[in-house]
């Protein structure tokens, strides 16, 4: 099925769901699937398109949420304008941080973005004169359209799914553009892409900023949906959750992040319900995410959204039947880099050197 027909089916399914389902519980889950899907989509473009790992996207998500909260509650800025200003500020932060950070590669880039996310959450907790500290910011106004406040789950759902659809259209067009082809080349082999004339630093920075803007918009939606923000949802645990969403769904597929967001958002509700009924389940959510991540890295690294295909031999044909063939080296992916991390915290060995 083509991407265009897939988006049409998604729009029809979302419209039918919104018209037929009235229960606030299911609509609440659907709203969070769309919000998480928007953040994961940006991270998927970064990981699957450019081959870069980020463990700090929860920080960008929080920047958007706090920008909307502070601008609307302290200075009375229109919520829509606050969302745009938050996305602009987050994009500028991502650009300033990305210029030095994206010079790192592999595990070092992951650690650099992890540090960025930790710094942002520390600011949320410590700058209590601006962010109200751990207590958070309350009384955030609802978004409204033509004077109608989006104060119910049903109304808000009809805002978030068209925004997610628009983001997917933008992401699909990006992947089909000249920049998208450059990103795919960069994700496969950075050295070869540079040799072919790709401006590697500029391409990396562009997709990094775009993914941060997606996260910021999702954070603003989160703030105006719940009308309350605090630092706890924007920490390292949510960054890992986003990473699992992308890998679970498939980092090379445009649909992968949305599939992963749907599965993990529902799983979160199931585990929360289990913890409420059985106290010994409390705290096992992170363990479950880790188990899912490891299993998919081992048994299905291409993700749920990737089509099932028989493995195709990549070895060049030998000079005659039965001749030995040397395997073609395969380019690494963010998922493979995570799986290759040593379990004892030591430095990974250099290629060709025995540890």
Structural notes for this entry:
66% of the residues lie in helices and 1% in strands. With 355 residues, it is mostly helical. The protein has one domain: ABC transporter involved in vitamin B12 uptake, BtuC (Orthogonal Bundle). Helix 3 packs across helix 10, helix 4 runs antiparallel to helix 10 and helix 11 runs parallel beside helix 13.
How would you summarize the topology of this molecule?
Blueprint: H1 3-20, H2 24-50, H3 57-74, H4 79-101, H5 106-126, H6 128-131, E1 144-145, E2 148-149, H7 153-176, H8 178-188, H9 190-195, H10 200-226, H11 236-249, H12 256-277, H13 285-299, H14 334-339
Antiparallel strand pairs: 1-2
Helix pairs in contact: 1-7, 2-7, 2-8, 2-10, 2-11, 2-12, 3-4, 3-5, 3-10, 4-10, 7-8, 8-10, 11-12, 11-13
Helix content: 55-70%
Form type:
globular
Counting structural domains, the number is 1
Please give the CATH class: Mainly Alpha
What structural class do helix, strand and pairing data support?
mainly alpha
Radius of gyration: 21 Å
Q: What does the average pLDDT come to?
A: 84
Terminal CA distance reads 47 Å
Going across the biggest sheet, name each strand in turn: 1-2
Keywords:
single chain, 355 residues, mainly alpha, ABC transporter involved in vitamin B12 uptake, BtuC, two-stranded antiparallel ribbon, 14 helices, globular, disordered C terminus
Quick structural summary:
The chain is mostly helical and 355 residues long.
